[in-house]
Amino acid sequence: MREVLPGIVIDPEIRGGKPVIKRTQVPVDVLLGKLAGGAMYEELMREYDLTRAQILAALRYAAMVLGEEQVKVIL
After folding, report:
1. Backbone angles phi, psi at 2, to 5 degrees
2. Taking the chain (75 residues) in consecutive chunks of 10 residues, what is each chunk's mean pLDDT?
3. Which ranges of the sequence are coiled-coil (predicted)?
């Protein structure tokens, strides 16, 4: 298990190595999708037994990954 950001881990044995919230099996992409779909923090906290800090860790991870992404534009 490797912690890639505080609160976010990657483990090949958990969800096929997808980034998940530490000490859970909740994938970051699932949380992001639910937030994008209009879910409120409180809903996710109840549904997945998470804290606000854990949800914010998922958002920080997504921001970090997107910040490192390089896109080639071919004109």
Report:
1. -125, 125
2. 95 95 96 97 97 97 90 85
3. none
Whole-model pTM: value is 0.88
d(CA 68, CA 45): 28
What does DSSP assign to residue 74?
-
| Phi and psi, residue 10, nearest 5° | -125, 125
Q: Which tokens in the block code for residue 47?
A: 């549904």
Domain presence at residue 73: no
| Structural domain includes residue 75 | no
Segments forming the whole domain that contains residue 43: 2-68
**Residues 6 or more apart in contact with residue 42 via CB below 8 angstroms:** none
